[in-house]
Amino acid sequence: xxxxxxxxxPVELWRRAEESGxxxxxxxxxxxxxxxxxxxxxxxxxxxxHFAGQSDLLLIAVRATTLxxxxxxxxxRGGALFPHLYGPLNLAAVxxxxxxxxxPDGLHQFPDLETGR
Length: 117
What we know:
The protein is of the alpha+beta class. The chain has one domain: ADP-ribosylation fold, CATH 3.20.170.20. 21% of the residues lie in helices and 31% in strands. The strands form three sheets. The chain has a three-stranded antiparallel beta sheet. It has a three-stranded antiparallel beta sheet with strand order 3-6-5. Strands 2-7 form a two-stranded antiparallel ribbon. It is globular and about 40 Å long.
């Protein structure tokens, strides 16, 4: 599996996490009992399906190997294995967090998924 996994989060929610050093999840994460993450091959589709038309988002890259046992790869959309984090995300595991703007076509404009640029 790729060394990086990704979270899409509203800027305001992420800023609160930066103050505490822990991200405990968006409302859907709290409801489902785990933090939804995506692999590189999945994150664009996640944005399209769950964040269509939303601005003020960040794309956050997390080093999967630092998450340990709370990170589980579980079947989800179409049977694909998605990373789910059972517990808070310690921001020490975050490699980068960058804006995820909408382009003129209304789709999110992704940076390079390795570098965040």
